[in-house]
Amino acid sequence: MNRTRIPRKKNLWSIAGIVVAIVIALVWIALANGGENNEEDLLSELRQELIPLEGSATDYGIPYSLSSLPQFVEWWVTLVPEVENDPRYIESLSALVAPCCDDNPAYSCCCEGEEGQACNIIRSGKGLAAHLIHDLDYPLDQVQASVLDWFRFARPDYYLAVALQEQGVSPKRHDLTDRGSCYRGMCNTAVSLGGCGGMNELIEPALYDADT
Fold first, then answer.
1. How many CB atoms lie within 10 A of CB 158?
2. pTM (predicted TM-score)
3. Is 98:180 a contact under the CB 8 Å cutoff?
């Protein structure tokens, strides 16, 4: 009886091919997992570097908290008219982007018209700047740094997304976007939810939660 025999060499090449394919798959999985871990580590580092912690101290004596929103917005009403021609106010806010529409400066966001309209995240930054200038006589660079840190605290999603982009990492991989909340139809969404906080009355459920 004749038997068809597969050459031993062919068997060895087949096994080697399978082994190589398995090794490549394992390496690819390891690299993918390693990349994800590296990105998570990067995001954590950026958060620690850029985003102030809730309750941490500021040099102007008001700890970081969204509970400050009503006060900052009130200062937009009462103090901005007192400092709106001060070069420190104009230059500090002109040097910062609006986190809700970053193709505009914080000095004049995309919603601001002749009536001085602005969303509440921008009003809060302007109100803080006015307080620092009118009440504390801060120099320009200190006003700018303080308002930037306030924006970073209040809207960490935007600033982390931008920082990831600068590192060559897609923010979408971490459910973030650097597209302004205004352009995503979030003008009447709470600041704590990544929105603009409303265009008239302040929208911030976190404030009510804090009172209960």
1. 25
2. 0.79
3. yes
pLDDT in tens, 172-198: 999 999 999 999 999 999 999 999 999
Which residue carries 């090449």 as its tokens?
13
Distance in angstroms (rounded) separating the CA atoms of residues 192 and 106:
19
Both tokens of residue 149? 């840190």
> Is the Cβ–Cβ distance between 119 and 198 less than 8 Å?
yes
Residue with tokens 């995503």: 184
d(CA 63, CA 149): 12
Give dist(CA 70, CA 157) in Å, integer: 21
What residue spans define the domains of the chain?
66-211
Give the Cα separation of 152 and 150 in Å (integer): 5
**Residue pLDDT, tens place only, 74-84:** 999 999 999 99
Residue 84: φ, ψ to 5°? -65, -15
Give the 3-state secondary structure of 102-120: CCCECCCCCCCCCCCCCCH
Q: Rg of the Cα trace of the chain?
A: 26
